[in-house]
Amino acid sequence: MFEFENMRYKDILFIEQLTIHQGEFTCIVGESGGGKTTLLRLLNKMISPTEGNIYYHKQRLEQCPSVAHRMDVSLLSQQPVMFEGTIKDNLLYAVRLFQKDDVSDEELSDLLTQLKVKKKLSDDASLCSGGEKQRIALGRILLKKSSVLLLDEPSSALDEKTEDLLLQIVSQYAKDHEVSVILVTHSSEVASKYGQRIIRIESGRVIR
Amino acid sequence: MNGIIELGLPQMLLAYVFAVVVIILLKYRKIPQEKLVFFATIRMSFQLIIAGYLLQWVISNPHPLMTLLIIAIMQVFSVITVIRKFKKPPLSKSLQRVIAIVFPLGSLSALFYFLFVVVRISPWFNPQYFIPLAGMIVGNSMTGISLAVKSMHEKLTIEKARVEEALILGATLKQATESIINRTFDQAIVPTLNNMLGMGIIFLPGMMTGQILSGTNPTTAIFYQMAIMLGILGGVAITVYLILVFGIKTYFNHQLQFREIEL
Fold it and tell me: pTM to 2 decimals?
């Protein structure tokens, strides 16, 4: 699905050769500051390689239209931003961008319950805690129905129990919808539990 | 009652008492602005003396090339003034280019409509109308564009994370920056709108006052003032809209990523 060919991003990340396969739950582990987040941002096209190429389904990423690509390859940032408005507005933000069929309030409430967010759809999103914002942002990208989910430490603001529950939801969702997941995590334990493949990145290079 | 009271040199010099009073007050309160007041007073005096003599000559010797040259100088100085206002950090080259294109486009389209469709000046280059009316429309458009660029830059800096999150989720540039453009547009035209709201009640506008003082029928003066205010509103709105729509694009590359040098 994603192929790297002598790809460099400044002095932060250099990947000579790497393939990330479709349908897999791939975990990226490594020390902080090693280039894991940069890798996800490259895959979502928020930044572009300074040298070399990344291919997505054999097409050079540079040539993929950015808007369509970001719809298909969704990124959940480590500290997602909530937009002005209610929790419902935030959940539907991406869906409304593409004028897809609106999702019913019942479905949205079920999603909130699944994500263990004990708030109403009409509540102000800016008043949610860091952990709640992370889970609402996860719901936001799940509703996009993308082919690939890029998750940057999605449970950094959560306790162990909620983290496990969240990753179970993602894992189940990926299986049900045949979605590829690329998860960045600092925890080797999480990586070995969920990852069908583990890629270790240290000092900007992939360690085989 | 008609006709203007001639203001002789001694009477005009008496008005400088106001500047002297301000300087004394600043010195007494130890507010370190007295040099600025002094410099501003001297500069204003020299600029107006030169402009007065120049206008007198241009109006007595009307020529299309001279009118066009003055308008071009006004435009160049306005663009330079706007760009020089932003030193820390300076505006990017691409944004400077956009300002240099959209400012004349916006301000001149409002000016030409006003002169040729509303006032219908004759001959078309009549400097008596062309130059003072251009000064009002171009000057106000310059204030509007400065305000818009400052506000757009600040908002993009403060709300960078929100704009980026929208782009991450797949928003187009228009969708990601819509709220910033709308709020900036609103802020940039508010001074002109406030001016319109207070006009006639809180203050009498300069052009109307000038015309009435020189003996023009107040009805004519009012019509001129209403028309020029609408012309100014048009000039400000068109220039601000153009700079926002085209200027905001300079902060992003063609892959819809923030250009790193911009913020």
Answer: 0.84
DSSP letters for A169-187? HHHHHHHHHT-EEEEEES-
Task: Residue A80: list chain B partners with CB under 8 A.
Answer: 165
* Closest residue of chain A to B162, computed from CA coordinates: A81
DSSP-assigned letter for residue A149? E
Decide if A42 contacts B257 (C-beta within 8 A): no
Q: Which chain B residues are Cβ-neighbours of A77 within 8 angstroms?
A: 165, 168
Predicted local distance difference test score (pLDDT) of residue B145: 95
Name residues of chain B where pLDDT drops below 70: 1-3, 261-263
Q: Residue A157: pLDDT above 70?
A: no
Strand order across the beta sheet in which A197-202 lies: A59-60, A51-56, A2-9, A13-20, A205-207, A197-202, A25-29, A180-185, A148-152, A73-76
Count CB neighbours of B38 within 10 A.
15
A185 DSSP β-pair partners: A29
For residue B125, the one-letter residue type is F
Note the pLDDT of residue A99: 72
Residue-wise DSSP of B51-119: HHHHHHHHHHS--HHHHHHHHHHHHHHHHHHHHHT-BTTBPPHHHHHHHHHHHHHHHHHHHHIIIIIII
CB B155 within 8 A of CB B180: yes
Residue A99: left (phi > 0), alpha (psi -120 to 50), or beta? left
What pLDDT sits at residue A208?
64
Interatomic CA distance for residues B220 and B204, integer angstroms: 14
Could you tell me the two tokens for B192?
Answer: 């002109």
* Model pLDDT, residue A129: 86
Helices (H), chain A: 36-43, 66-72, 87-91, 93-97, 105-114, 130-142, 160-177, 188-194
Give the model confidence (pLDDT) of B153-202 as tens digits: 999 999 999 999 999 999 999 999 999 999 999 999 999 999 889 887 77
Q: How confident is the model at residue A4 (pLDDT cuts 50, 70, 90)?
A: very high
Residues of A in contact with B164 (CB under 8 A): 46, 81
Measured in angstroms, the CA of B169 and the nearest CA of chain A are apart by 6
Residue A186 has pLDDT above 90, yes or no: no
Q: Which stretches does DSSP call E strand in chain B?
A: none
Q: Which of A155, A150, A181, A137 is nearest to A39 (CA)?
A: A150
